[in-house]
Amino acid sequence: KEIDCLTATVDDILTVKADFSSSISIENTRFCGFAGWFDVHFRGRSEDPAKCEIELTTAPSVQNGTHWGQQVFLLHPPLRATEGDTMDVSFVMHRSKENHRLLEVEFGCKFKQPTGKLLQYFTEKFYIE
What we know:
Strand order of the largest sheet: 1-6-7-8
CATH topology of the domain at 10-34 and 71-128: Hnrnp arginine n-methyltransferase1
Pfam families: PRMT_C
Low-confidence stretches: none
Keywords: Methyltransferase, S-adenosyl-L-methionine, Transferase
Helix content: under 10%
Distance between the termini: 21 Å
CATH superfamily of the domain at 10-34 and 71-128: Hnrnp arginine n-methyltransferase1
GO biological process, one term: methylation
GO molecular function: histone methyltransferase activity; protein-arginine N-methyltransferase activity
Shape: globular
Organism: Opuntia streptacantha (Prickly pear cactus)
Structural class: mainly beta
Order of helices and strands: EEEEEEEE
Mean pLDDT: 92
Number of helices: 0
């Protein structure tokens, strides 16, 4: 999901939604969950662009450690998957009603064979504290 921090308002990010697709590239494996992190691109403003774009990434990396954490959303039990299977995923994140500093995340996922046959559909909700 891409958000322009120069123009986004609090109302714009009360609920963050995104849809994406991915495919399995390993034969006879298990799909155990999702991982999340963010990147920030400092590009300046249109009237005052940065001379050189700078990227702050919190992505997992062996070479470029960061004090920022990543979030893991584990599925139990894991799903059986094989090379060529695809996932159509919907992602919704919003602030908790109990504490605005906490987040609730929901994934919806259609797991399909290369033929398009639906293998499994699931929704899973997670709470980030």
